[in-house]
Write a structure and sequence with these properties.
- The structure is a single chain.
- The chain is an alpha/beta fold and 416 residues long.
- The protein has 17 helices and twelve strands.
- It folds into two domains: 125 residues; 283 residues, Rossmann fold (3-Layer(aba) Sandwich), CATH 3.40.50.
- The strands form two sheets. Strands 1-6-5-7-8-4-9-10-11-12 form a ten-stranded mixed sheet. A two-stranded antiparallel ribbon has the order 2-3.
- The N and C termini lie far apart (67 Å).
Length: 416
Amino acid sequence: MIEAELLSKVIDNNEFYTMNKYNVTEADFRTYQHVYRYVREYVSEYNETPSYRNVVAKFKDFDYKPEVNDNIRYLCREIKAKATRHESVKRLAKVNENFKMMHPEEFTKWLKEEAEALEAIANFGASTVTNYATNGTERKEWYVESKENRTHSYIATPYPTLTKWLGGGFEVGDYILLLAYTNRGKSWLGSHIGNKAHEEGFGVLHYSPELSKKQQVFRNDTLRGHFDNVAIRRGELKNEDQYYEYLDEFNENKEVPYYIKTMEDLPKGLSTDVIEADLQVYKDVKLIIIDGFNLMQHERIGRDGMSSTSRKLRQLFGRYGVAGLVIHQTPTGAEKEQKVDEDDLEVEIPVPQITDYSETIAVIQDAATVLTFNQKDGRGRLHLAKCREPNVGKILDLRCNFNLGYITESTIVDHF
């Protein structure tokens, strides 16, 4: 029985939280829900799985399977498939009854909703995560496909001056907030920070719910290898031999992970529960990037829900010992208020202020470090709006060529 094999494997390998990676929950167990529940509670209290002797002694009905050969990934997918089939049978059992009782239009609507629900269940069970550090071969395949189809402790920052201002970089366990106006490059900046951290040997978990998987990994390739981003997405690189050689470096020999979760991996959206489950599985992560606080699923609608999410994030970052970079946008109204004469090349590009928050002030209060950013025509300005060091108010000028992956320091200005 697949349930017995999975639980036996999890117990023997002390890998209970690996099931979370594949979205396996108590509801997926029909025979051994009570065993799953016991193991979960034991792990929560003692931080390890109970011995098989313990479980067998407690539950006489549990059919323990020693030395299961199949890996946990396969077993998780099988149990999810079984649960999906069971749910399908249960839902479709009502077809004949509803066909007789419902008006044709009502029945058609119900049938469509049931089909969509079953599709969502199947997609959720099949969701995974992409390890950017090891999938060079897969990215090569994506590039060739694009070419053929024409579709297309302290973590140092990429900017030495900012790292110095922060006293060595982002401290592990801290909440870092990056604020910027819409479409000014904040996602590029966040990705740049993530790739620098990874190159320095820190495991990264990057949530990018607004982008597709290909878009995010190709952005990383642009930032690290300076390959034309438009050309990568279209499969039209002029230096593709160099790109292939670059991709060969990303293989199973890479020990430090760069995990990426995009819209494909988050069928039910991004929430603090998803993040905590991932942190329990990916113990080798030291930097989390959440690209879009406003894109998260909040427990409640409105300001209270966002405030609650922010507080939970702060707790998670501290509890699991990871630096958390949360990217959030400031309202367009604040940008209009600071609008300057764009024809005057000498004028300074205005950066968002921490008073320009929109939905909730909690993100400002919870963050240990707040960075605000603005960019126009390749001129960027990064404002250190909040930090523990005596450098609050300083602004770093940047030169930005996002399409070729260049974000570099220009000049330094003190701003008080």
